[in-house]
Amino acid sequence: MQFNIHEHPHRRYNPLLDEWILVSPHRAKRPWQGQQEAVSIDLLPAHDETCYLCAGNSRSNGTQNPQYETCYVFENDFPALLDDDIEFENQNKKLFQLKPEKGINKVICFSPKHNVTLAEMDVLEIENVIKTWKEEYITLGNKDYINYIQIFENKGSVMGCSNPHPHGQIWAQSSLPTQIEKTQKSLQAYYEKHQISLLEDYVTQELQLQERIVIENDHFVVLVPFWATWPFETMIISKRHFGNLIGLTSKETLAFAEIIKGITVKYDNLFETSFPYSAGIHQAPTDKISHPEWHFHMHFYPPLLRSASVKKFMVGYEMLGEAQRDISPEKSAEMLRNLPNTHYKLIKKK
User: Fold this and answer.
1) Which of 30, 99, 132, 297 could bridge to 71 as Cys pair (CB 3.0-4.6 Å)?
2) Directed axis angle between helix 329-337 and helix 250-271, to 10°?
């Protein structure tokens, strides 16, 4: 039987993490009688008096938010990391290794409007979010003990988001997180061997193939990675090679905002719902070392599989063996690419 990439199970290599994923495109045809997620259809107010992130409201610790009009950033009231100096004696036990981790956790409210998401904000508002990310990356990265800054957003209750107000988080810490350390090793090995960044090489080839491209503009590309794990996973990659938010020009900042707006609108349009995801920027560490191997990019990991109420579960084989997906990356890219660029709510208003 002749191999068919769209029908036959196969494995694909993820060069960023040096891992493999199992692709089983034929399984997309199986019937589903499993769990159905609740779909939120609540109409949220522009300001919620009970929301601890809304402008002017008090948070759970009694701190009152200012009457902010754009982005608002504050240190997380319930941080996972602490900015404390801890005395620690390293006993170097091979099978019981541990070390204190120092860092700072921040929350960034994208907008004072309680009832919007990035998909429903205008491009200039998203541009301001990016500028705030950049300011925080510079400020936190200048601290001597901060070696990596993870900027991310969890959107939707299915992703563990405890508050619908549009917001994200920034975790700055002294160590490289595991995923970043794996990526660092892969990027560095590729750069040392080929003298070009892995993602610069990759995005050039993807643009030639046009099989997994969802959106592009003059400065950025949105694509479904060849090795994507989640059904509608995408990645934003800069066309120009630079390593972090500091490298963004004014034109690229606006283009980055446009491309974020573009993919989040397409996500919402896919199942006509406020599409949940975890998204985050991967960029060079802030360890005061030159990192020419790093290429600026942003990941979107949405869990939905078949509809607004059916999500992909990472269980069984995925937990014990390796990641597995049903729908092919090429099919996902085609579905997203063919969706309208206008948000479905605006289309229905017409």
Assistant:
1) 132
2) 100
Locus of tokens 């206008």 = 342
The whole-angstrom separation of Cα 136 and Cα 86 is 25
Return d(Cα 322, Cα 82) in angstroms, integer: 33
Q: How much is the mean pLDDT over the chain?
A: 93
Q: 3-class secondary structure for the chain? A: CCCCCCCCCEEEEECCCCEEEEECHHHHHCCCCCCCCCCCCCCCCCCCCCCCCCCCCECCCCCECCCCCCCEEEECCCCCCECCCCCCCCCCCCCCCCCCCEEEEEEEECCCCCCCCHHHCCHHHHHHHHHHHHHHHHHHHCCCCCCEEEEEEEECHHHCCCCCCCEEEEEEECCCCHHHHHHHHHHHHHHHHHCCCHHHHHHHHHHHHCCCEEEECCCEEEECCCCCCCCCCEEEEECCCCCCHHHCCHHHHHHHHHHHHHHHHHHHHHHCCCCCEEEEEECCCCCCCCCCCCCCEEEEECCEEEECCEECCCCCHHHHCCCEECCCHHHHHHHHHCCCCCCHHHHHHC
- Per-residue tokens: 83: 């900015």
User: Among 333, 319, 279, 272, which Cα is nearest to 303's?
Assistant: 279
pLDDT attached to residue 160 = 80
Q: Given pLDDT bands bounded at 50, 70 and 90, which one contains residue 41?
A: low
What is the average per-residue pLDDT within 177-186? 98
Active site residue 167: yes
Under the banding of pLDDT at 50, 70 and 90, the label for residue 28 is low
Question: How far is it, in rounded angstroms, from Cα 43 to Cα 55?
Answer: 19
Q: Which of 6, 8, 114, 167 is catalytic?
A: 167
Amino acid identity of residue 92, one-letter, is: N
**Between vectors from CA 336 to CA 16 and to CA 343, what angle results, nearest 5°?**
120
Percent of the chain surpassing pLDDT 90 = 81
What are the CA-CA distances from residue 235 to residues 162, 166, 213 (Å)? Answer: 25, 21, 10
